[in-house]
Design brief:
This protein has a single domain, classed as Alpha-Beta Plaits, CATH 3.30.70.1290. 39% of the residues lie in helices and 20% in strands. It is built from 5 helices and 6 strands. The strands form 2 sheets. It has a 4-stranded antiparallel sheet, sandwiched between helices. Strands 5-6 form a two-stranded antiparallel sheet. The longest helix is centred in the middle third of the chain and has 18 residues. It is globular, with a radius of gyration of 16 Å. The N and C termini lie far apart (34 Å).
């Protein structure tokens, strides 16, 4: 092949520090475009972003020139800095230390897009902790109940 071709869909999810319900609708209206801009500037195509008060989901195409760990560090750091700079919430805002980033096959994009779009309805029935635990199970990642570490 004379050219490299990639198409790596990522479903990323991360929460506010200690899962505090700080991401109210007025914050989301500023936060989501900011995150979209950050990802786009990194050469990623953003399909959708949505969430609830304590976490967000992002579906995007990963730029193969960028490491997912560097990208998430940049997005989370820049967005929390901007939330604090603009005083969008009364207390200091921070994201949790980690994140989830799961590859999505092309055939599942519509399903994941719908899942992300329906976050408010989804979380009337399930907490973020339950949702994240389900992600871990679906992706074959086991969480150690004693220390919360992920075992592969």
């Amino acid at each position: 092949m004379s050219h490299s071709k990639t198409k790596i869909w990522i479903h990323a999810v991360f929460s506010s520090k200690d899962r505090q319900p700080l991401i109210q609708k007025k914050v989301r209206m500023i936060l989501y475009p900011l995150i979209r801009e950050q990802l786009t500037a990194s050469g990623c195509y953003v399909d959708c972003i949505n969430g609830v008060e304590d976490h967000i989901h992002i579906l995007f195409l990963l730029n193969p020139q960028v490491a997912i760990s560097d990208l998430m560090k940049h997005v989370k750091g820049s967005s929390s800095h901007e939330i604090n700079r603009q005083n969008l919430i009364p207390e200091k805002f921070a994201w949790q230390t980690g994140y989830g980033a799961f590859s999505i096959s092309e055939s599942q994009i519509g399903r994941v897009r719908q899942y992300i779009a329906n976050q408010e309805q989804h979380h009337r029935k399930m907490t973020f902790a339950e949702e994240y635990s389900q992600f871990m199970k679906n992706y074959g990642l086991i969480i150690d109940p004693d220390n919360g570490e992920i075992n592969r």
